[in-house]
Amino acid sequence: MLLVKYLKFHLGFLRILGICLQTPNMSRRNKVFAYICSISALLVLPLTGYYVFMSVLPRVASEFLVNFQVLVLFITAFVIVLETLSTKGMQFRFWRFIEKIENLYEEQLSDLEVEYKILSRYQMKKFFLIILYSHGLDFVTIVMTKLFQEEINVVTNWTVIWWFYGSAILITRMRNLSHILVIDTLTMHTHFFNQDLRRLGRILQFSSNSYIVKELNLIKLRHAYLWEAVYWSNKCHRWSQLLNIVDSFYKLTEALYWIYTTREKFPGKAKMGYF
Q1: Distance separating alpha carbons of residues 230 and 250, to the nearest angstrom
Q2: What residue intervals traverse the membrane (predicted)?
Q3: Read out DSSP for 80-113?
Q4: Per the domain annotation, does 244 fall within a domain?
Q5: Which domain covers residue 205, as residue numbers?
Q6: Sign of the CA dihedral with 166 first, then 167, 170, and 172 last
Q7: Is residue 121 part of a domain?
Q8: Domain count of the chain?
Q9: What pLDDT digit, counting tens, does each position of 165-200 carry?
Q10: Are 92 and 24 in contact (CB under 8 A)?
Q11: pTM greater than 0.85 (yes/no)
Q12: 86 vs 30, 81, 113, 129, CA distance in Å?
């Protein structure tokens, strides 16, 4: 399959995080590696989630927000790994329909390959930006902890906590990115489909009836396969995307709450524009 060849790095990195994406013609080694990573993530996430949850027990009622955020985050990460592990058949259907679409573009395969290269480079930039953003925030937090905490055990504990917490965040963000990758793939195929329609519109004006019927049948199949791919991609991301939305909404609500309480505690600074 042509597309999978250009997305080897992306799929491999996602599998390391326990996001067990299945593709046609996977080697036995890749399958074993993907399953080991996913099962390990399912075992490790509850343990690390419990450790982080118990490490940030609230001292006052308002700090319960932090505990609830940790709970939502690790549940989301766990469901993401479990969903990718349990939707193997749906993932295969998605990739099979993409493969069928590729096979219908025999004469335009070189043009399609160019589009795949562009898609791969574009996704690579997104991957590195998300990795730098996620671990960059964790690194800054750990450094600040080392600067302002004198007790070495406190620094060590917070470093471990933020590493676990950051890893769970990275899983949720990468699952979002895997969904975006699927959407970008479908968007690219839709754009390529429309370009091919315009090309055919010019050719069919001077073509015989038999050629027109043949091309119209191909158009019908491409359209049907594209919609099937959309359907199965949505089925594969149902629960993870719902929980990601809940997690993001809660983080926004929590951030607004802390801004509000800060303004209440420091009304003078708020008027001066500090908050």
Answers
A1: 28
A2: 32-53, 65-86, 127-148, 154-171
A3: HHHHHHH-HHHHHHHHHHHHHHHHT-STTHHHHH
A4: no
A5: 2-239
A6: negative
A7: yes
A8: 1
A9: 777 777 887 887 888 888 889 989 888 888 887 777
A10: yes
A11: no
A12: 17, 9, 31, 29
